[in-house]
Amino acid sequence: MTEAAIEEEKKELAKQYKQLLKISYRTLTKEDKKLIRSAFDLAVDAHKDQRRKSGEAYIFHPIAVAKIVASEIGLDATSIAAALLHDVVEDTDYNLDDIERMFGVVVARIVDGLTKIAHINMAEDVSMQAENFRKMLLTLNEDIRVIIIKIADRLHNMQTMESMPRDKQQKIASETLYIYAPLAHRIGLYNIKSELEDLGLKFTEPEVYADILGRIKESKEEQDAYIEAFTKVIKNTLDAENLEYEIKGRPKSIFSIRRKMLAQNVSFDEVYDKFAVRIIYKSAPENEKFFAWKIYSIVTDHFRPNPIRLRDWISSPKSTGYEALHITVMGPKGRWVEVQIRSERMNEIAEKGFAAHYKYKNKEKDDGGLENWLNKLQETLENSEISAVDFVEEFKLNLYAKEIFVFSPKGDLYSLPKGATGLDFAFHIHTEIGMHTRGTKVNGKLVPLSHELKSGDQVEVITSESSKPTANWLNYATTGRARSKIKSSLKDEKKQLAEEGKIILARKLKSLKINLDEHTLNQLVVFFKVKTSLDLYYRVGAGIIDNPKLKDFAASRSNAFISFFKNRIRKPEKPEDVNKEEITEKFDQLVFGKNEDKLDYKIANCCNPIPGDNVFGFVTVNEGIKIHKTNCPNALQLQSNYSYRIMPAKWIDSTQREFKAVLTISGIDTIGLVNEVTKVISNNLHIDMKSVHFDSNDGVFTGKIVVVVKNKTILNNLVENIKKINGIDKVTRI
């Protein structure tokens, strides 16, 4: 590097340092500034010879993370220092003792937590990512700041991922959408959650992201004009009440618009609430509630509210600590608009989450349910029975869930995730009550255990000493806590049954003159097509493998010669099949990896990709490579937890082989419509129609067509042609 460039970097460093102190959300004391200065100097020295992929000096990464921690999340000086030092122990010659000696125990503990997350044991067979997440979450209880700095670190990595290879981008973005965005949401960092989600979409589905971003920019002026019109109507009344307030428009994030488009199967233009209007008012704490409802009544005097869409999180805040009043009203031009009413304090908590809570924390108020959540999480963490991947799944259940509020028979208020059942409620109150649940009463009526609770329900649990969890309970429980407790209870029961089964099996085999040794055990496992000896013993104990089946085993064992023949007779149909595949595959090949290797694969049933779709290969344990679409519902989980098993894949020359696709059609029923649709399909030489089904209901029709096509282009053309038919409203591929 030239002298001038080095000088330039030094200047930039000095500027960044000043900025860091200036943007801090907290007021920094002299001691705080001293601590941050020495952390800054140490980080600069430790990383002096390192550069990032983009060529930039590495030190700018810890500084950027510290700036996010200081301003966007609003943490204290200790956290800012820890953020500056977060990569020092992992990447340089300094060790943890040095950090503790220079900065004290707390900073060292946070840096240690962040370093632990970075180190993973590569030798383990379980998903490395999942194991990594579990380690990371174990640090939650030591010091929640570890996770918050980790989220800031991930945010900066996502912001600067352009120069990375495509597969790395895909892996990191999937991981972000799968675990970091939900975590940020749960800790109450809504702004960061939205940015992480948008960046995640940018790297997992770049075309979709660019398209929506472009459209949002186009509609920006229109949106500003709309908010102007909305404000005009209520401004005079609000001013007459002497309220100090500001009205802002907030566009919905790209990710949430995309989620809405998928969930409701609509185009960008059909998504109505693309932005929300926020009214933020100044108020002393004791008058907050009064002013919120006053503003509510002013807004609803001018605009008609949607009665089903009132959300009152002021009377009972979300467990993330979020407080606000949300109403949806019919705004100008006949459009539904979401209006969020918050005081300045509520707004700060919504944006800074955790940190703002502590700033405003009064002695009698709690910290927004965070402690409660951490304690519950600790239970899941301590359940070592559960595999890492299962753990991450269970943990996710606790993150994104929307909330409902239910009452106990005594009138105590409990918050549960939306979709929770009576059984979840039982486990929420106490594990023992959950384990012995016999039934549940909702609002005084007996309901099934699977009954979904609604906000405002009063729930009573009926217990019995003799009740215990059964496998069916997993179908009724939705919360991570309930599911992990049920699973570990079933595991214990399975072990007990298996122990009994082992004794029964040895006795039964003895009467058939067979010794239960390792060789026999292996034969039994193969014969009964079970995975492990534990499964085998369990099935014997549970009576699934009974005497007649064991006699069949004995016969097959003594008659190995005949069974060898039977297998020979069953075999021939296989090769024929393979040859048939080979003939068509040559023309329609899926290739894997950089070298475009041709490998055997199977199509995944969950998303049924066809040639031309964007796909990836996933190496399964028993079934070879399975092909999934990149927007398959399971893609995020696979790419996040098992990125080392993902294989890049693409189609080449899709001209010969045929694939099945299902189209649904809806529109206004007119005479001869079915005839028109079938005509369009049969006029296309490359399409074979397998089945057609139409239903008409009071002038509206829906239809389902199964066609066989050679590739995606032909299918897209067909969809376009069907859309042109008069009366057709929507054509979608399932």
Protein described:
With 734 residues, the protein is α+β, with helices and mostly antiparallel strands. The chain is built from 31 helices and 21 strands. Strands 1, 2, 3, 4, 5 and 6 form a six-stranded mixed beta sheet that branches. The two termini are 56 Å apart. Residues 120-126, 362-368 and 572-587 have low confidence and may be disordered.
Topology of helices and strands:
Elements: H1 3-22, H2 30-46, H3 60-72, H4 77-84, H5 88-91, H6 96-103, H7 105-118, H8 128-138, H9 144-159, H10 166-187, H11 190-204, H12 206-218, H13 220-240, E1 245-251, H14 254-264, E2 275-281, H15 288-302, E3 304-305, E4 311-312, E5 325-330, E6 336-343, H16 344-352, H17 354-360, H18 370-382, H19 388-397, E7 403-407, E8 413-417, H20 422-429, H21 431-435, E9 437-442, E10 445-447, E11 459-463, H22 473-476, H23 480-511, H24 518-527, H25 533-541, H26 547-558, H27 560-570, H28 573-585, E12 589-592, E13 597-598, E14 601-603, E15 615-619, E16 625-629, H29 635-641, E17 646-652, E18 659-668, H30 673-683, E19 688-697, E20 700-709, H31 712-723, E21 728-733
Parallel strand pairs: 2-6, 14-16
Antiparallel strand pairs: 1-2, 3-5, 4-5, 5-6, 7-8, 9-10, 9-11, 12-13, 12-17, 15-16, 15-17, 18-20, 18-21, 19-20
